[in-house]
Design goal:
The complex is a heterodimer of chains A (207) and B (623). Chain A has 207 residues and is an alpha/beta fold. Helix content of chain A is 54%, strand content 12%. Chain A folds into two domains: 2-74, Methionine synthase domain (Methyltransferase, Methionine Synthase (B12-binding Domains), Chain A, domain 1); 85-203, Rossmann fold (3-Layer(aba) Sandwich). Chain A has helices at residues 2-12, 16-28, 33-53, 59-74, 99-110, 124-133, 150-161, 179-184, 194-203, and strands spanning 85-91, 113-117, 138-142, 169-173, 189-190. Chain A has a five-stranded parallel β-sheet with strand order 2-1-3-4-5, with helices on both faces. By secondary structure, chain B is of the alpha/beta class. In chain B, the strands form six sheets. In chain B, strands 11-10-9-12-14-13 form a six-stranded mixed β-sheet, with helices on both faces. In chain B, strand 16 and strand 17 form a beta hairpin. Chain B is globular, with a radius of gyration of 27 Å. Classes of the chains: A alpha/beta (207), B alpha/beta (623). The interface between A and B is medium-sized, with 27 and 30 residues.
């Protein structure tokens, strides 16, 4: 589909206006939102992720691609889309850094997940409530301050107490976070960046 | 528990330590200072040492940083490796914490000298049947009825003998009043000295930086700075940024006391050195005025900074504090006072008040902006008496950390880079280049962007994707994908120098740091409905501000691209502020007023930060 290939390119290069115009055209040509998301947006974010892993793209390119993606998605809100899973995303209690978290949310959205973004300073209780309310498959937590990482441990414990661990998995990330910390607090996964977060999240979905 | 001997080369020092102690602890015991910007957590890889001997197996943390080849050759991280037997450790120069070049001069301005401390010589009438007044009253009456008497016991204990031995010819030392015979309301008598010592009156202005501490010894009646001494803030071994120090302060092993003692020890060292150089006795110093960011101020007083470690970033104190030097263990006169300049809010502290005072931003009618391009990246915008300040927490990239061969501005640091037919680097001390400091980093990135080796979006291109480069320059570009690097200084076979290179990752770190600073500045300017090109004068404060090449900084969008006459380096303005406050009670009042008036802005709460940060990442002149 020519228009979807063009849309894919527009998102990869971060061209907001073009992405919006092409999405609009695709919709008026009768294409289903579902198809636009998969062949236009998800395909674009897949390429973005690859280029990120290859060190061609970095935070600036991810940010502008994400903005273009948002423009495209905004024209399709309300349309029915088959999500591959639901993820609750947030920065832990006491912490206010959200740029990394926003990138992860964008990449997840681009990959076809339903994303519930709780913002920053999110308490364990709020993570769990949102996970329950949305029947989330994954809780993805971010922290940038070593002083706030402990809240991740608290959230895992609270999830255990609520008996939700089978249903909802925990994925963590952020500059001071490590695989060994994830192992220590018995999180289900750790991802060092937005691109690998998508892979990990997919891996945490029920088979 | 068994004890083992560890020998350090090339210094040939040896220590005996119990087993299981880390190599880092052994090095410290041997008097060897290793670089530990990450505070010993095994993240930065700077404490690399080569070991022959019995150690515990490499930890998972070490395996993340070191390759199999490195481990096979005996390289270990000193902060992680633990002694299991006798060992011989070779410390490469690149792992040592070296002597430091620091900004000590400051932009000067003139004031009327009216210090808080005054010494007044008195010839008191001797006691007699007609005048049997108490010794203390005799002294106070000669000053003013409004002066509060001594409230410490020790000076009273020495008073009678001193008065009589000096035949009642003494000097009263008082705090709080203009330099006149009678002291105004609120004065306090600190001490009495024999004879006329009124000329021997000194104060110390101190700037406690996260990285460097600078002290100015000033003669108080004249206001003259007689000598300046500076040193690295030794708290750095527990973490190179405020967050890691806050974390350390909350750790169970008395971290707060360790940090407090460390900075007091540095200050005492500076006092000794300054006094020796100036030929002044340490007990001639009766007051210290101190500036530093909020965290530094809290740690200096031994006050727990934990509140600053997470939302909503609550300080324990904000207002000016006056404490006794003796309570902090500072080596000046036992009755000396310490005045801490007030903080503004959040992490933005007394040092920023000092900058505003020194640059007179509180009285600026045109739009002026002051930036401290350091770890905390404080910015102040001012116009017509309106003042806003924020901390951008840019990160320590400009001070050497998180850059693969980054280092502070010390011997061996490349601090200037120019590229023509080949690369020309200037190295501090003309020594073998061993790393890159902030000003060199900015130059290097700017030159590589100019030549098209680094794209504006921050990607370092592999050689096959760049054309038109002079041959000698093209040869320096090596590697592909994640491994791309540009060699600034070739390894030297003869001297064994490893050479210095800038990696693609280093460029990304620089982008992040400068985007935070520039984006933060744009957001803060919005409070005054202004944009970067509206700035009448941009003041660059701090050590880094003086050495950075403005063209390079503007070229990569670290600072706005303003005409040269609108950019001025004001050196260590925070230190100048501390001196102003020491030498003039009027300036002290002004500083307190400034601290109350400046509006602290929490940039992270601002909606636009995300977008601004993203746009500001571009490596090109901005706006």
């Amino acid at each position: 589909m020519a228009v979807l290939d063009e849309l894919k390119d527009a998102i990869i290069s971060g061209n907001r206006d073009k992405a919006k115009a092409l999405t609009s055209r695709a919709l008026s040509e009768g294409l289903e939102a579902k198809k636009i998301v998969v062949d236009g947006i998800a395909a674009a974010m897949e390429v973005v992720g690859e280029k990120f892993r290859a060190n061609e793209f970095y935070v600036p390119e991810l940010l502008i691609a994400q903005r273009a993606m948002k423009e495209s998605l905004s024209l399709m809100s309300g349309a029915s889309v088959d999500y591959i899973g639901t993820v609750v995303v947030g920065t832990v209690k006491g912490d206010l850094h959200d740029i990394g978290k926003n990138l992860v949310a964008a990449m997840l959205e681009g990959a076809g997940f339903k994303v519930v973004d709780l913002g920053v300073d999110v308490s364990p209780e709020n993570f769990i409530k949102a996970a329950t309310d949305n029947s989330a498959n994954v809780i993805a937590m971010s922290a940038l301050l070593t002083t706030t990482m402990g809240s991740m441990r608290d959230t895992v414990k609270a999830l255990d107490s609520a008996g939700l661990r089978g249903k909802t998995r925990v994925l963590i990330g952020g500059a001071p976070v490590t695989q060994s910390y994830a192992d220590e607090i018995k999180a289900d996964g750790y991802a060092p960046d937005a691109a690998s977060a998508v892979d990990k999240a997919k891996g945490l979905l029920p088979a | 528990m068994a004890n083992f001997t560890v020998i350090f080369r090339p210094s040939n020092t040896s220590v005996t330590v119990p087993e299981q102690v880390t190599l880092l602890a052994a090095a410290t015991a041997a008097g060897i200072s290793l670089q530990t910007p990450c505070g010993g957590q095994g993240r930065c890889g700077k404490c690399l040492v080569e070991v022959a001997g019995a150690l515990d197996e490499p930890t998972a943390v070490e395996r993340r940083v070191l390759t199999e080849d490195q481990l096979a050759e005996g390289w270990r991280l000193a902060c992680q490796a633990r002694i299991a037997g006798n060992a011989e450790v070779t410390v490469p120069e690149s792992s040592l914490l070296a002597e430091h070049r620091i900004m000590v001069e400051g932009a000067e301005r003139e004031i009327e000298v009216r210090p808080n401390i005054t010494k007044i010589a008195l010839q008191l009438p001797q006691p007699s049947a007609e005048d049997p007044r108490a010794d203390l009253d005799r002294v106070l009456d000669a000053l003013s009825s409004k002066v509060r008497p001594l409230d410490r016991v020790a000076p009273l204990q020495s008073l009678p003998a001193m008065l009589r031995d000096s035949r009642f010819h003494v000097t009263a030392v008082a705090a709080g009043g203009p330099a006149r015979r009678s002291l105004s309301e609120g004065g306090e008598l600190l001490a009495v000295e024999p004879g006329d010592t009124s000329g021997n009156c000194y104060g110390l202005a101190v700037d406690i930086g996260t990285t460097t501490v600078v002290a100015y010894l000033c003669h108080l009646p004249s206001g003259k700075c007689v000598t300046i001494a500076s040193d690295l803030n030794s708290q750095a071994q527990y973490g190179d940024d405020v967050i890691s120090r806050i974390q350390f302060a909350s750790s169970p092993d008395d971290g707060l006391a360790v940090l407090c003692r460390a900075v007091v020890a540095v200050i005492n060292g500076l006092i000794e050195r300054a006094c020796r150089e100036a030929g002044v006795s340490q007990d001639a110093i009766y007051e210290l005025t101190v500036v530093g960011n909020t965290c530094m101020g809290h740690l200096f007083l031994g006050v727990p900074p934990a509140g600053l470690g997470s939302l909503p970033f609550v300080q324990v104190f904000r207002s000016a504090r006056v404490v006794r030097a003796a309570d902090l263990g500072i080596g000046v006169h036992p009755e000396a006072l310490v005045y801490l300049v007030p903080n503004i809010g959040g992490f933005v502290g007394a040092d920023t008040v000092g900058v505003i005072l020194a640059g007179e931003l509180d009285r600026s009618d045109c739009l002026r902006v002051a930036v401290d391009i350091g770890t905390n990246g404080e910015i102040v915008v001012a116009r017509d008496g309106e003042l806003y300040a924020a901390s951008t927490a840019a990160g320590p990239a400009f001070e050497g950390a998180r850059i693969s061969q980054g280092m502070r501005a010390a011997l061996g640091a490349i601090d200037r880079v120019q590229i023509g037919d080949d690369v020309t680097c200037h190295v501090i001390g003309q020594a073998e280049p061993r790393g890159l400091c902030g000003s060199g980093l900015v130059d290097a990135v700017a030159e590589l962007v100019r030549l098209g080796i680094v794209t504006e979006s921050g990607r370092m291109l592999p050689r096959q994707e760049v054309s038109g480069l002079p041959e000698k320059v093209a040869q320096r570009l090596a590697g592909n994908g994640a491994e791309v690097r540009f060699v600034l200084a070739w390894p030297d076979e003869e001297s064994g120098g490893e050479g210095v290179a800038l990696t693609g990752r280093d460029v990304r770190e620089t982008q992040l740091a400068k985007a935070a600073l520039y984006g933060g500045m744009e957001l803060l300017l919005e409070e005054l409905d202004a944009r970067p090109d509206d700035i009448e004068e941009l003041l660059l404060a701090g050590a880094f501000g003086n050495y950075i090449r403005r063209e390079s900084a503007a070229g990569i969008g670290l600072i706005p691209a303003l005409p040269a006459h609108r950019i001025r380096s004001i050196g260590n303005a925070a230190g100048v502020g501390a001196r102003l406050v020491l030498c003039s009670t009027e300036e002290r009042r002004r500083a307190e007023e400034i601290a109350r008036r400046v509006q602290h802005v929490d940039l992270s709460e601002r909606k636009g930060f995300y977008d601004r940060f993203a746009d500001a990442m571009m490596l090109r002149p901005l706006p």
